[in-house]
């Protein structure tokens, strides 16, 4: 049994290896190196053409880069030549070195190619080492690859000044070349893997399980991972939104509290008085109630403090926006600024102070530190992104990064989420900052146009999704590996009994019939092993008896062939059938053999031959059977299928013959020629079972030969009869033809010549034939026409003389037959010409007699064409060239031309006379044809009229109706008045008296016709 672990890639013959030095190189490695050389040659060619067409070489680096692809192209062709000449080590090594030449030269001379060159060098080297390099070269190729990659990294790190900037198309070239190499060699690897899979059923089943299970595993895992990722992503976005909403709520609450404080303070009676002594205690109470307020003060309309809680000197705030807003009458005014008092970001909230008459008398303001808001902004958990607040002017109110609020408040008007917010967008916003970092932000706008922004980088926000995907990918890898291992183990374990069974089958096929398969289970494989053992046992028994059966069948076939050769000899049908029946009986040791032939109507089988006295007796009785299923032979002929009765005593259809009481088995084989039944071969034996299905093929082959022999005998008899008839007919024709030829009118009835005394004289009746004369008949197609007699003076004839005389007589007979045929043909041709001239002469006479005017002539006197007279014609003919107008050698006129002496003119006149004759004859025949056609049409019209009248008369059985129909049809046809009436008894007696008996009917008919014709009175 072949080990299923062995793959075709491990099988290698000496023809698949080439010896170079001390290393055997795999043919597949040579093919891989050849493929790599082809790709390098193509890369080098197109790179050379592209660099030449670009044509912008301005430095020595450009020229080196232009020459490098040419060198790669040349080295590629050289490596192909080495590989084809049986030098795989040199060829594959040159391919590897040439492949590294491109990236090394490019990285030495150009910048901006680091990753592209690194990817190309790494991928191409790995592919070539795996697919194209022999094992003996693996060590130095790996070292060379590592050095090349290190050189690429070093050149990118140090960036020497000799390098120039590379174009984008070169990076695309290296990436594209890497992709092409990977695709080509992956396709080649997949094809090799497919061959390995097809080599073993275990590999195929494992691949099938993996093809079905792994995509299912990937699909389920991908679905779960996708759902989990979506949930995680939605939760991350929800957390970001929650951070934003939480901060917005806190800021809104904080602002509302301070707004209410500012408005309530502006409405206090002591504050409305704008009296510093009365305002001071109130301001202190408010400041103590709100610890985050570091300044509570009132300002007069001139912008200077009226009263302050910190007892500091009065300050001018007329330039502050919050003061100007409150002074203008705004209910509440906000301003975020760097406080002059503490030098930190602060929020100033101002409200106008109205007196009792509703006039603004000052401004009440509270200034709060933003530390509480900043703490909330900074207090976000790590990994949850950042939150910050901007005021209505897009300046930062609070930010986790202190640099945004140190010294001055940074303006974020150009920051993408702030831009989107000012455009009226709230909610989720995705953007990329100036550093290329992708962010997801959630924006909320407060009532005072402050903006609350919570944002987080996509990498940080979706990190859990990435982790989930990584876990899913790892699960797929681990699951695939586990599934592969389980499938491999289970399939190998399940197929192991099949392997043992295959080993047993191979041993049995090699001839070891004593080997049995081990039955180790009760499943389908165990049942297969049991059935295989049963089959092996039966095979041993069968082979034990096969030789004897083969020998017996071979003997039957040899006997059938011998009988077939005997019956194939061409003989008379009766003799052949009698000999065949006796030979079959004798060769096969049978009891009785007979042959039936089907009659011409295919309704009966007639006995034509039978062995022994029983056969003679049946033939003398003219024994026959109906061709139907009532008998064994009839059924064989009707169904065109052999009928075998191995044991007549056990057969219900067998009908015993009293003349053949010893029959114990019988076989009837139809004699078929194509699909036609010509007879039946019937064989009977005294031993039951001697005629059976096993011996049937030999007798069917014998029956086929016998049927062909019968057909050949019939065809031979028919051919003999046909030949005799043809010869008799040929003799009759020859005798008749010679009797017609020697008719005593054209030739004498007897012709003969004699050669004597060196002279040829006519043969007379008195010349006698000597005793030593040799006579040979002169015969044509078996009919004797005469004799050739040669007299030998004093010598008796010898065999060669007779042969020579017979040969000469045969040649004379053939020659005189040819002369007769030629003379008869000449006679018939002459008679045909005479008949043609006679018909032409009679035709022209009839044509001219119908119209005398046609027998005229015309003359051209150089002025006009006019008829001429006889005297004028005679005078012209005496002094001019006269040529007859002939049709079939019959003169029908003359063409006379005066003054013709030139030979060319005479030829022209002759040609005109000939064509004029043909044309006139053609016109005459055309006119005769038209007259014949007119006569035919008249005859057809008359016949049509008669058929019409006859049809009308026969359409009725009433005499009166018949007379009316006859009068109507004839009158309509002739266009005349017509009368038809029956004769009275007196008229009939008168007519009978006037006409003799026997012609009365004719007289009445004529009289009737006359009465009809004379009835025309129109």
Rounded Rg: 67 Å
Strand order of the largest sheet: 17-16-15-20-19-18
Helix/strand structural class = alpha+beta
Mean pLDDT: 77
β-sheet strand percentage:
15-25%
Regions with little confidence, pLDDT below 50 for 5+ residues: 1-24, 997-1018
Q: Distance between the terminal alpha carbons, to the nearest Å? A: 121 Å
Largest sheet: 6 strands, antiparallel
Number of strands: 28
**Portion of residues within helices:** 55-70%
Oligomer: single chain
Shape: elongated
How many helices does DSSP assign?
25
Please outline the helices and strands:
Layout: E1 17-20, E2 23-26, H1 27-54, H2 60-84, H3 88-109, E3 110-111, H4 114-131, H5 138-158, E4 164-165, H6 168-199, H7 201-267, H8 269-272, H9 276-289, E5 293-300, E6 305-308, H10 321-327, E7 333-338, E8 345-354, E9 360-369, H11 371-378, E10 386-390, E11 396-398, H12 416-422, E12 427-432, E13 438-445, E14 451-457, H13 458-461, H14 463-509, H15 524-567, H16 573-587, E15 592-598, E16 604-610, H17 612-620, E17 624-626, H18 632-639, E18 643-645, E19 665-673, E20 676-685, H19 696-741, E21 753-756, E22 759-762, E23 773-780, E24 783-791, H20 799-850, E25 858-860, E26 865-867, H21 870-878, E27 880-887, E28 890-898, H22 903-954, H23 959-974, H24 985-994, H25 1000-1014
Parallel strand pairs: 3-4
Antiparallel strand pairs: 1-2, 5-6, 5-9, 7-8, 8-9, 10-11, 10-14, 12-13, 13-14, 15-16, 15-20, 16-17, 18-19, 19-20, 21-22, 23-24, 25-26, 27-28
